[in-house]
């Protein structure tokens, strides 16, 4: 039979636990900063003043919210995306919203999108799907909002991923990181 006499030094145990806790907190902080700055750069990479930013169903609402929140930073940026033509009774004949339906919950969706202006807007019927390339400008529709001045518009098929989802938890408003 073996008998072990184990003497615990609580001061050393406390120091070791304190150091381990500090290391864990440090790792969590580093990961949080990495996630914040990596996500900011991800949105920033989609917007580059020399290129056209392509918007898809995965980043649609994040970019829509980012542009609405920081309009002055995006004026002049060229973007390209697809959606369906949505009109409201008080639009001019050269205006429409290039829209997507955003899923709120299992039973509800809302129309979201950018207000667009184009000389040939009346040639495209309501609910038809188009792909546009345009430039973000400031406009007025019940207040200052982004308006896309369309440079190119083409009919397209309804995409497989026609719905979009609310901005995700990693959305971080940015203003000058581009």
Textual characterization of the structure:
The chain is an alpha/beta fold. It has a single domain (6-178), classed as OB fold (Dihydrolipoamide Acetyltransferase, E2P). Helix content is 29%, strand content 33%. A hairpin with an 8-residue loop joins strand 2 and strand 3 (95-105). The chain starts with 9 loop residues before the first helix and ends in a 14-residue tail after the last strand. The model is unreliable at 45-50 and 173-178 (pLDDT under 50).
Secondary structure layout plus pairing:
Elements: H1 10-46, E1 52-54, H2 60-69, H3 71-74, E2 78-86, E3 95-105, E4 108-117, E5 129-140, E6 144-155, E7 163-164
Task: Throw out a few tags for this protein.
single chain, 3 helices, 5-stranded mixed β-barrel, 178 residues
């Amino acid at each position: 039979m073996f008998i072990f006499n184990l003497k615990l030094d609580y001061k050393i145990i406390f120091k070791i636990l304190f150091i381990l806790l500090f290391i864990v907190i440090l790792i969590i902080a580093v990961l949080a900063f990495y996630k914040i700055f990596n996500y900011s750069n991800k949105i920033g990479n989609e917007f580059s003043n020399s290129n056209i930013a392509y918007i898809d169903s995965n980043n649609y609402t994040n970019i829509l919210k980012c542009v609405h929140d920081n309009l002055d930073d995006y004026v002049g940026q060229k973007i390209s995306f697809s959606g369906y033509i949505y009109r409201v009774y008080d639009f001019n004949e050269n205006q429409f919203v290039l829209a997507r339906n955003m899923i709120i919950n299992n039973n509800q969706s809302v129309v979201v999108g950018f207000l667009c202006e184009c000389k040939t807007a009346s040639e495209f019927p309501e609910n038809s799907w188009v792909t546009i390339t345009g430039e973000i400008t400031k406009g007025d529709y019940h207040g200052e909002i982004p308006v896309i001045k369309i440079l190119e518009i083409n009919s397209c098929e309804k995409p497989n991923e026609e719905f979009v989802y609310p901005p995700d938890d990693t959305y971080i408003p940015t203003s000058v990181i581009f």
